[in-house]
Amino acid sequence: MRPTKFPTPSPPPTLSDGFTFHTGRRIRYVLARQGRSVTWLTHSLHCVRTNIYDIFARRSIDTLLLLRISLLLGHDFLSELSAAVRANPEAFAAFLKNIDH
User: Fold this and answer.
1) For residue range 6-41, what is the model confidence (pLDDT) as tens digits?
2) In angstroms, rounded to a whole number, what is the distance separating the alpha carbons of residues 51 and 21?
């Protein structure tokens, strides 16, 4: 079966709190850049397709899940997230206030 291709998403705009890193969008972008399909990720994570689309929609995800996806894709999402936090700590603090509610 041929992998499903979808357009490479553009980088996310600055979100309402000013923190631009969107984990799910970044995972989708890297998956597309590598030419891998949603089906491939579904099988690799042993889950259903709707879970993958749910991950793409999430701005933040569980650390262990992010580590699993990082290993599967050979991409260090945690370093990218850390760099985004260091680049704009005030926006990250605002982001944290929004998700604590």
Assistant:
1) 555 555 444 555 667 789 999 999 999 999 999 999
2) 20
Query: Which parts of 1-101 fold into alpha helices (H)?
Result: 23-33, 38-45, 49-57, 63-73, 77-87, 89-99
Q: In this structure, which topology does domain 23-99 adopt according to CATH?
A: 434 Repressor (Amino-terminal Domain) (1.10.260)
Q: Enter the tokens of residue 88.
A: 């704009």
Whether pTM > 0.85 for this model: the answer is: no
Distance CA 40, CA 20 (A): 27
Integer distance in angstroms from the first to the last C-alpha of the chain? 43
Place of tokens 């890193």: 21
